[in-house]
Amino acid sequence: MGSVRGTGLGWSDQPLHLRYDAALCDLDGVLHLGDEPVAHAADAVRSARAAGMRFAFVTNNASRSPVVVAQRLTAFGIPAEPADVVTSAQAAGRTLASRLPLGSAVLVVGTEALADEVRSVGMRPVRTVDEAGEGGPAAVVQGLATTTTYADLAEAAVAIGRGALWVAGNTDATLPTPRGPLPGNGAFVAALQLVTGEEPLVSGKPDPSLHLASVERVGAQRPIVIGDRLDTDVLGAVRGGADSLLVLTGVVGVRELAAAPVGSRPTYVAHDLRGLLEPHPQVEVNGETARSGEATATFDGTYLHGDPATDDGLRALIALGWALADRGVRVAPPTWTANG
Predict the structure, then answer these.
(1) Which of 3, 35, 208, 227 is a Cys-bridge partner for 8, taking CB atoms 3.0 to 4.6 Å apart?
(2) 98 pLDDT band (50/70/90 cuts)?
(3) Structural domain of residue 314, as residue ranges?
(4) Nearest-angstrom CA–CA distance, 58 and 268
């Protein structure tokens, strides 16, 4: 409920898991960070499921198969089946199948899980240009792999330079981990863009096709997208016509969220996945003051003042920051300062 999707905070007088029938939930930065579970995430998913909410686990990370993803989630206390998992590698396979003849050679820059998706749509994965035979690869498909080398990128550069179709699972520049952000697939994609001057087709979020596949997977009528990124999760939700919940357990922090541009603003915000189980009160913005519940945020002409330690405080601060930005008011860094 509330503002036009992608422009400002919405509100809900009932917990989100009761308003929406299905959650399209990101993995990295929402449910886990690398091999560590995110606090409160498993309990929130279990509680929402117990109330009847369905889940699709939607990831831009093409490095693992749905079987492995489901096993990892189950180990984190979130029971999942491979059929619950939707990956950018699957989307990349569909893209290749729609554009190439069966049996085409596809140069894989990524894991064997990505190569398996190429095989599953009737294509022939190769690792070098020469392995493809006369004419070279018909396409290059690129997904995250921590073992990607200079030699892998060099083979891809040669194939793209010769006119091969280029499909990237995602262009996420970073991957959230317990150690902080590390290079994501987008960092390697950027290297090839610089070398070749070409742009890939992106099969993962924010492309609407991955969103639509997720909706179909769980038969959702009123889905909500849950993620930790503005440029993929939230933008993908906006393009897919769905509301979104952004949590602060992954990539985006308070400052980045307060500066979110129109079109990439989430419907709801929360510190972690417990926000799925709560109502989200309407934020009242009057001039240079915003109020959410008992929390307030103010603007002194230079800085935003508030306390984003609570979800109400976070909502007030973000709503005021967006309202000021929409009025053309410049807020000097730091984006916010805590009260007191």
Answers:
(1) 3
(2) very high
(3) 281-340
(4) 19
